[in-house]
Write a structure and sequence with these properties.
4-stranded antiparallel beta sheet; about 500 residues; Barwin-like endoglucanases; 18 helices; Pyrimidine Nucleoside Phosphorylase, Chain A, domain 2; 6-stranded mixed β-barrel; Aldehyde Oxidoreductase, domain 3; homodimer; globular; 19 strands; alpha/beta
Chain lengths: ~500, ~500
Amino acid sequence: MSTHRLLARRAGIDTYQQPVVYLRSDGHVCRAEGFQSQAQIEVIAGGRHLLAILHHVDSDWLRQDEIALSEAGWTMLGAANGDEVEVRHPPVLDSLAHLRTKVHGGRLDHAALRALMEDVSHGRVSDIHLAAFVTVCAGGGLDFDEMVALTRAMVDVGERIDWGVSPVMDKHCIGGLPGNRTSLLVVPIVAACGVLMPKTSSRAITSAAGTADAMETLAPVDLDLVAMRRVVEREGGCIAWGGATRISPADDMLIRVERPLNLDSEGLLVASILSKKIAVGSQRVLIDLPVGPVAKVRSTAAAELLSRSLMAVGAALGLQVRTQLTDGTQPVGRGIGPALEAMDVMAVLERGSDAPSDLRERAVLLAGEILEMAGRSEPGAGQALARAVLLDGRALAKFIAICEAQGGLRVPPRAAHAHEVPAPAAGVVSAIDTRLLARAAKLAGAPRDAAAGATMHVRLHESVDLGQPLFTLHAESLGALQYALSFVRSQLPVVHIDAQP
Amino acid sequence: MSTHRLLARRAGIDTYQQPVVYLRSDGHVCRAEGFQSQAQIEVIAGGRHLLAILHHVDSDWLRQDEIALSEAGWTMLGAANGDEVEVRHPPVLDSLAHLRTKVHGGRLDHAALRALMEDVSHGRVSDIHLAAFVTVCAGGGLDFDEMVALTRAMVDVGERIDWGVSPVMDKHCIGGLPGNRTSLLVVPIVAACGVLMPKTSSRAITSAAGTADAMETLAPVDLDLVAMRRVVEREGGCIAWGGATRISPADDMLIRVERPLNLDSEGLLVASILSKKIAVGSQRVLIDLPVGPVAKVRSTAAAELLSRSLMAVGAALGLQVRTQLTDGTQPVGRGIGPALEAMDVMAVLERGSDAPSDLRERAVLLAGEILEMAGRSEPGAGQALARAVLLDGRALAKFIAICEAQGGLRVPPRAAHAHEVPAPAAGVVSAIDTRLLARAAKLAGAPRDAAAGATMHVRLHESVDLGQPLFTLHAESLGALQYALSFVRSQLPVVHIDAQP
C-alpha cells in the first residue's frame, strides 16, 4: 500500500470529537490515491496513527503539499505545524462483518466483539457504523453471554490498573436522575475512613451533567494513569474522568454517538459500567439505581432485572456487585447542570443551613453501604459512620485534599443569563418530569456550557402560589436561553400542579 | 426564536452530500446563540431552508460576519457570494420520538412514519439518526403494515406524476448482481413497441453501479419533472435518475446512509422500490429478483417471500406488481462499473458479434413479460416481439433517440489504469463471488469514478489455463488500483477454480 508525505497544518476548524482532515482535491495525493470526499483516510506522524474523515478543499488557503487537520485530529495526532505526515487508505475493516451479523439477528461471541471494540477504540469505525451498533444493542439487544463478552472485550482493548491491595471499592449511578451527584460526597467520606476508592466517571451521555462534568467545575479531571495513581496513593481516592485514560476506550467512542441518539441499552449500560470498573481495578462496586416514572429505570421490576444482569455479569468476570434502588421521582438537590450540581455538593460538604438534605441523605446511605461492603463497618453501622465523617468536617477536608491533588480546587462558574419559570396556577406539586427538565437544561447549553442548566425551587407535594418561581433556567447566551424556554413552553408542564381541594 | 444575518460565502470545501457550514467561534452569532461545533443549525436564504452541521472556525480566512458553506450546502441553498442569509437553532424534532419507539420494539403507523419521512426528506435528520433508522429496519425489522405505511409516507412527502394514460409500465431489479443492466435495453424495446415506460432509477446503493450511474455515462440523467415529461412525451420512455426530482425524496436521504452501512432491509427495499414507482405514476411493474449464493436474495424461498411482500404492498397501494426470478450465480455481461456496463449495453443494441448474449437474453425475457403485462402481446408472444425489435435495430434507434432527448448521447469514459488478475491454477471455474467482485470494483473507484470497475474474462463452468486472465481491474488512479488489488489478493479467491479430474 503506497503512502504519501505532506506537511501538517492546523486548520483552525473545530469539528468536535470527529477528526477531519483537509486536502486539495486537485493535489497529487488525492488524484494518485483516488481519495474521495467523506472517505476515511489514515494519517501517520511520529508513530501515531489517526483515522480521519477527508474533506476536499478547492481554495487557496491550503497548498497542494499540505494537509490541514481539525482540532480533534490535531490533538490526537500530536503534530506540529510543518511536520511531515504520511497519508494512505485505511485497511479494510473485517470487524464490520460482525456488525452486519448482529444487525441481521446473529449473536456475537467474545472474539467478534473484541475485534469490533479494537477497531472502535482506535477510531477506525465511522459514526454511522457506531450508530448502527448502538441501535442494535438498544433495549435488550444483547443477551447475557453477549453482555459478558462485550464487557470483557471492552476491558481487553484498553489499559488495566492493579492497585496491589484489597479491597478496592467503587460506586456508580446508572444516571437518568438530574442532580444525583452523590459520588462527589461518597468518595471523600469513604476515603476519609481509610478505604481505597479510586473513582473514574464518564461525562454525560443523555443527561445534563455527568459526574466528571460536575467534578471538572471543582478540579481538573483529565488525569492519566500516572496522575491518578499519585492522587490515590496520597489521598486514598480520586474523582477522575475515565476517558482521559485508556480505560475501556471503546466505551467513550460509543458514548459520542449514544449522546445524540439518546437511546438506552441494557447491554451497553452493563458493559459500559462494568468494563470501566474492572479495568480500573475495582473489586467491589455499589450501583445506585434510581427508579421513577421518567428515570432511566421506570419500575422496581425493571430495576431488579437490571440488578440481576449487573450482578451476574460482574460475577462472571470476578467483580462483586451490589445494587441500591433509590427514589427517582424528582431531581436530587437543586442544581441541574455541571456547575449548579457542584454547588449543591459543596453546600452539603460545608454543612450550610441551606444544603440540600435529600442529596446528603442519599450520600450517607450509599457511603454507609460501601463501608459495610468493605468490612470497615459492622453490618448496619455503616450509615452512622458515614454521617459522622460528613458532619465533623473530615469529608470536606478530604474532598479539598483530593481536589488539590488532582490539580487544585476551583470555583464553579456562574451563567451569564437566567430566567425564572413561574407557576401557571396555585396548587400542589404533583409530579416533576425530570426528563423534560434535563432536556431543557441541555438545550440551555449543559453540559458543554458548564454553568448552564436549571435550579429547582420546589419539590414534590409542596404548595405553590400562582406566579411563584418553579425553576430557573441558566445559560451562557441569550439564544440558548430562549431556545430552552421555547422548548419548556411548547411541552406539557414540566412541573405538574394539582389545584388544591 | 431569534435569527441572525450573515453574508454567504462559498467555502470551497467538498463534504460530499452532508452540508456543512462554517462560522467563527468568536463571532457574535455563535456567542449569542450558543451554537456549538457539530450542532445542527438552520440556514435560510431566499425562502430556502437548509439544515447543516456547524464547524467552528478560528482562523482568518473567515470573517466574523460571514458564513461559509460547503459545496453540498452551497448547491442546496442556491445562494451567491455576499447574499444575506439568516441562521437560527433548528426546531426540536418531535419525529425522533417515533424513531426511539421503533428502536425499543414499538410499531410505527402511517402518521409516525410520515412525520419521520417529512423530516428526513427535508434533511433535518442527522446521519447518525438515519443510521439508527436504517439499522432498525434491517432484515425483517418492518412488518407488513409498516411496509405499507412507510411506502405511502415516502410517496406523500414528495412529488407525484400523473401521465394521464394507461397503462404506464415500469421495471426494477432489486440489484446485488453486477452487470445486470437490463433497464437500458428493456426501456427502448418496450418504448419502440409504443408502450409508455418512464423509468427512474437510483444510483448504486451497495453495488458498483446503479442504472442511473451506467446511463449517465451515455446521456444526462439529472432530469427534473418537466424535462422527464418532455422526453417521455416525445419518445415514450426515459431512463432518468429519480433523485434529481422530488420523487420519494426521503429514499435518497436514506440511501446516503445505507450505502456505507451496507445493510439490506426487506422493508426499506420494498418501500424504496414501490414508493418511487407509485410516485412516478407507474401502474404495472415487473421486478427482477436475481437469486444466487452471494446475491441480494440467496434462495428461491427468500425470493418468493420477498415477491409476496412486493405484490401485497403494491396491491394495498393500487400498484400491480409481478416478479421474475432470474439466475444470480455470476455477473451478467462482462463489465462491472458504470461505463463498463454501458459498453455491454451498447454492444447488445448494436448487435456486435462480441455482444454478451446473457445480457441480451435477460433483456428479452423481461421486455417480453412487460409487453404481455401491458396487453401489447398475447400471453407467450412477448419475447418474440421483444427479440424482433432488438434484432431489427428499432431498439437501438429508440435508445439513441431517448439519449438525444435527455440531452445528447455520450461515449462512456475509459479508465487510465488497468490490471489483469490471472488464474492461479488450471482447471474449471466452479464459482464466482459476485459480492467480492463488486467490492473490488468499488475499491477501484466505482461508481464515483465512472470508468472504474472490473471486466470479466471467464464464466462459470469454463476451463482456464494457469495464468489466463480471469478479470481485469480498471481505475482512474494507481492508488485506487493498488487498493482494489490488495483487497483481491487478501481475500479467498474471487473466482474459484477446481482442478480438472
